[in-house]
Specification:
With 142 residues, the protein is mainly β. It has one domain: Lipocalin (Beta Barrel). The protein is 0% helix and 68% strand. The protein is globular, with a radius of gyration of 15 Å.
C-alpha cells in the first residue's frame, strides 16, 4: 500500500497562513487563520487542522486525509466544532489541487515551490449550478 507520505499530498505538509474572502449574498466577509498538515500514524495519514475566523465567527476543523487505495486520490474525513462531519475526495495532479464533496468543491493551484495554494470553494445552488463562495489563499509559514 502506498503511504500518503510518498504521494503528491506531501506537498501540503507544514503550517500555513490562511486568508481569503467569503462571498455571502451582497456582503463579503474576511477569512483569516492557520491551517496545518502533519503526517500521522507512520506516514499513512495526514492530520489537517484548520483554525480560522470567518468574519466574526471562529471555525475549527480536524480532517484525516488518507489514500483511497490509489496513490492519486484521497479520502478526506472532516469533523468540526459545530459537530458536523463528512467525507470528501481530493487529488493533486501536477499543480492542480481538487476537492469534491456533497454539494461542495474546491479548485486550486499549488505553486512549484509548494509555498502557496490559491483557489476557490464553490457550493451547489438549488438549480444545480456551482456558485463561488470562498476565495482562498494559503501561504506556507514553516
Amino acid at each position: 500500500m502506498t503511504k500518503i507520505a510518498n504521494s503528491s499530498f506531501r506537498r501540503l505538509l507544514g503550517v500555513w497562513k490562511t486568508s481569503g474572502q467569503i462571498l455571502s449574498g451582497d456582503s463579503t466577509l474576511s477569512l483569516a487563520g492557520t491551517d496545518s498538515y502533519e503526517l500521522i500514524l507512520n506516514g499513512n495519514y495526514i492530520l489537517h487542522k484548520a483554525a480560522v475566523m470567518m468574519g466574526d465567527e471562529k471555525s475549527e476543523t480536524f480532517e484525516i486525509v488518507g489514500l483511497d487505495g490509489s496513490s492519486e486520490k484521497a479520502a478526506m474525513n472532516y469533523f468540526n466544532a459545530n459537530g458536523e462531519s463528512g467525507t470528501m475526495t481530493g487529488q493533486i495532479e501536477g499543480d492542480d489541487f481538487l476537492i469534491n464533496g456533497d454539494g461542495l468543491k474546491f479548485s486550486g493551484k499549488i505553486n512549484e515551490a509548494n509555498t502557496a495554494v490559491i483557489g476557490k470553494w464553490l457550493q451547489q445552488a438549488e438549480d444545480n449550478s456551482w456558485v463561488e463562495f470562498i476565495d482562498l489563499k494559503l501561504e506556507k509559514q514553516k
